[in-house]
Amino acid sequence: MTATLLKEASPPPAAPADHERKRRARRRARVIALAFVFPALLLLGALVVYPVLFSVGRSFFDASGDRFVGGDNYTEMFRDPATLTAVRNTAIWVVVAPTLLTGLGLVLAVLVEKIRWATAFKLLLFMPMAVSFLAAGIIFRLAYDEDPEKGVLNAAAVSVHDAFKDASSYPNARARDGQGLTKAADGSYGTTAAASPGDTVGLGLVGVRAEDLPGDARPAYPASGRKASADELRGVVYLDFTRGGGGEQGKVDRTESGLPGMKAEAVRDGKAVASATTAADGSFRFKGLDPGSYTVRLPASNFAAPYEGISWLGPALVTPAIIGAYLWIWTGFAMVLIGAGLAALPRDALEAARMDGANEWQIFRRITVPLLAPVLTVVFVTLVINVMKVFDLVYIIAPGPVQEDATVLATQMWLVSFGGGNNQGLGSALGVLLLLLVIPAMVFNVRRFRGSQR
Amino acid sequence: MNAIRRGLASSLVQAFLVVIGLVWLTPLAGLFLSSLRSAQETATGGWWTALASPGQLSFDNYSALLGNSGMTQAFWNTVLISVPTTFLVVVIAALAGYAFAWLDFPGRDPLFLLVVALLVVPVQIGLLPVAKLFGQMGLFGTIPGVVLFHVSYGLPFAIFLLRNYFAEMPKEMLEAARMDGGGEWRIFTRLVLPVGRPAIASLAIFQFLWVWNDMLVALLFADSSSQPLTVELQSQIRQFGSNIDVLAPGAFLSLVVPVVVFFAFQKHFVQGVMAGSVK
Q: Out of A130, A413, A414, whose CB is closest to B262?
């Protein structure tokens, strides 16, 4: 690096003798200057510039590096399904994350100006920038845990879900074959035989473990013998299982428990005409029925599997979930940077608009956003550069089996080159692609820098 | 009427920001509480159950962590990697930044544009070639190797930042110093460095955090005796469910240092990260 520099140095202009001293002094100054930049240029040349050139060259060779394959690694990149997934996921990241972050940052920057504890809020949101992606990854692996007993997000999802929809108490309950109940296609059970007002029916189910019975469940036997009056249909839903053996299948034995909280419907001509919920002893009754023949149905909702929450880290949602973790880290950054731009806006423009009676939304839409456009662009471009290189977060949060659904260019490059793939040709090509993708941002940086110098 | 409406709007904004603040705090609180619970407790219920029964919280995991030689070694490795890297980046970049700003040498301006261009080069592209190079030099798997790599990829931004800061110095100041017959080295140590202190502080903090938090570079260049905390923890993540009592306190330990740095040097930190984000 330095050698070429010295060669490039133009020879000092031919000078008369009295300039000889000056020339020496200038040469001396140049040598000193080169001594100042030498360590930096040596490291940059050997460990940054040379590797870039090496990688570009290496990307035209095969896995072992012995055979020149031209552009094969680059075409392979778009043929190999794993790399294709990485390209697609990186595209999702680059579109979604910077957009959300810039929008969120803008909204928060505007809102935070209106509160007194703005500094505390900014500090809190900025703090995750200090946290490593690894630690953030562990934090979110924990938060996204699929088990609602462990992952806070699923715990919240399940409690919200259950607040709006009752959880069924008997997800595994079923009827024995040939004991008077028939299962319908929708998962509900209906009595095989018809019943009329004045009858008392017994609906026996199995598949409920004794320890899963609700605490208030009582033996069903007394209710099963109760007589129905002429305009009512009575019945009992019970667990057709006697602990310790004995008991007769299809009959309510003395110790057998009722199943409380079960929904039951009286059905006539395929339509539910009455419904009831079973009491502690499993009994129910439909009053005021017209004479005729009915069947009793236990709707499928009784047997619905419990809501297990959302599979955040499953193949479908893993990328959005990791982007969520990324938002946690970077929102404060976007907010603070945009906030700085906001503080620099001309106050009189805003005041004038307020005087003219513009409301806050109009001011935001017509004045703040257009004036902030340059800052928003800088934030957006900065985020794009950073998002393109996201590695740790994906590597940590995506569980092993889902890794290939979540993979992005940076992780794919790692996997292909070092993580078992061991194809350094393709790996180099992926590295070069990553570099090519950030070049527009590089041009943007150089332009901005040159602009600021003028 | 208007005042009422404004008051209502303001309390809505406050409420919204309180919710956002809580959302931001929750993951961290979750990690901290998890780090204080035993593996069995974590297996049977979420960390929020500890809010109702704080009895399950204890520092046992942390004392176990301190007794774990792999972890303590990794912690020291993190220090041994980040401190020298920060020092070297600051020194080398300050020298070069001064030269790019105030000294005359052939190819100065194109070289500086090259440095600006190198700002965004992803570390990924350097991994493979530098690994080969370090292999030949015997630096692979050593702390100096990790440090050298970090220094090299930290330099473009560091030079960029310091050069721009130094360039703002008044010309008269430097000329006066030269008149007084100070050599460049003397000017650099007595004048440029003190004047550049704010920028150097921001750079140092940014660089320190960057390296402290790095996983990718160390994952490749460090071996099991030189690996930092991030890599040590990463190697345990496969058994995520079963060893959360190691991972959670480890992760918390690894983030305590940067967060303390953050709160201690808020202003420099924010400036450093803002400036460094162009990387």
A: A130
Apex A342 CA angle, A341 and A347, nearest 5: 125
Q: What is the pTM of this model?
A: 0.80
CB contact under 8 A, B118 and A49: yes
Are A431 and B128 an interchain contact pair (Cβ–Cβ within 8 Å)? yes
First vs last C-alpha separation in chain B:
50
**At A285, phi and psi to the nearest 5?**
-150, 145
DSSP string covering A295-314: EEEE-GGGGPPPP----TTS
pLDDT tens, position by position, A122-170: 999 999 988 999 999 999 988 888 888 788 888 888 888 777 766 566 7
pLDDT tens sequence across B9-32? 788 899 999 999 999 999 999 999
Other C-beta atoms lying within 10 Å of the C-beta of residue B86: 25
In this structure, what are the phi and psi dihedrals at residue A235, rounded to the nearest 5 degrees? -170, 175
Contacts of A382 (CB under 8 A, 6+ apart): A337, B277, B278
Rounded to the nearest angstrom, the minimum Cα separation between B157 and chain A is: 12
A-chain residues within 8 Å CB-CB of B238? 400
SS3 A399: coil
**Which tokens is B8 given?**
């209502």
Closest CA to A205 of A137, A260, A165, A163: A260
In this predicted complex, what is the ipTM? Answer: 0.90
Residue A329, CB-side half-sphere exposure with 13 Å CA sphere: 26
How close A115 comes to chain B (CA, Å)? Answer: 7
Average pLDDT score, chain B: 88
CA distances from A232 to A282, A284, B151, B177 (A): 17, 10, 86, 108
Residue A210: count of CB within 10 angstroms of its CB:
10
Average pLDDT over every residue of A269-284:
87
User: Each residue of B110-123: b (16+ CB within 10 Å) or e?
Assistant: ebbebbbbbbbbbb
Instruction: Provide the pLDDT confidence category of residue A7 given band limits of 50, 70 and 90.
Output: very low
Residue A278: name the closest of A212, A375, A213, A337 by CA: A213
Tokens of A6: 């010295």
* Alpha helices (H) along A171-274: 221-224
B237/A396 Cβ within 8 A = yes
Count residue pairs from A and B with Cβ separation < 8 A. Answer: 282
Cα first-last separation, chain A: 29
Structure tokens at A436: 């090519």
Give CA–CA dist B79/B212, Å, rounded. Answer: 8
> Percentages helix, strand, coil for chain B, rounded to the nearest 5?
80, 0, 20
Q: Cβ of A155 and B155 within 8 Å?
A: no
CB contact under 8 A, B269 and A130: yes
Give the contacts of B17 (CB within 8 A, at least 6 positions apart). Answer: A108, A111, A112, A115, A121
Single-letter residue type at A317: L
Of the candidates B122, B209, B233, which has its C-beta nearest A438's C-beta? Answer: B122
Q: Torsion-angle region of residue B250: left (phi > 0), alpha (psi -120 to 50) or beta?
A: alpha
Q: Is A29 exposed, middle or buried (0-12, 13-18, 19+ CB in 10 A)?
A: middle
User: What percent of chain A is helix, strand and coil (3-state, nearest 5)?
Assistant: 55, 10, 35
Contacts B152 to A, Cβ<8 Å: 43-44, 46-48
Of the candidates A304, A215, A202, the residue with the CA atom closest to the CA atom of residue A260: A215
Q: Which of B103, B104, B152 sits opposite A43 (nearest CB)?
A: B152
Closest residue of A to B103, CA-based? A33
